[in-house]
Amino acid sequence: MKSQEINTMEGEILTEENLPEDEKPKVKNPKLKTQRKFSLPSFNSLLIKIENLPNILKNPRFIIIFSLILIIPFIYIAFTLLGSKPTSQTPAENPAPEILNPSPPIDKKLQDIENKIKSLQTEVDLLDANLVELALPEVDLNIKF
What we know:
The protein has five helices and no strands. By secondary structure, the chain is mainly alpha-helical. It has a domain of 41 residues.
């Protein structure tokens, strides 16, 4: 804006402020809404709403809102049930104690497997002992061409 335009705007503001109250433009007060008194709906309006009920129920917006109102509590209940731990757990019934034999039956296959494991362990121990006894290799790092 040019300085001339700014001066004219300031002048307008100053003149409006300095005007006497009678000459100032009056601002309309917003209309205050009157409070309505509650009254029961008339019988005819209720009949009209009941007659339009099938149309309202077919409205997709109503169907979506109604289904959400039903689905959200079910989901909430399901999550709370899944998240809660059972407070009381029934102990499992103990079976009748069996009489233990002093010497259990020996399975030949298991005994053979145990013998093989023992023999392999002894062989591995012998290999470890042989590796300790071996001397380290000597390498000549002075390579000349």
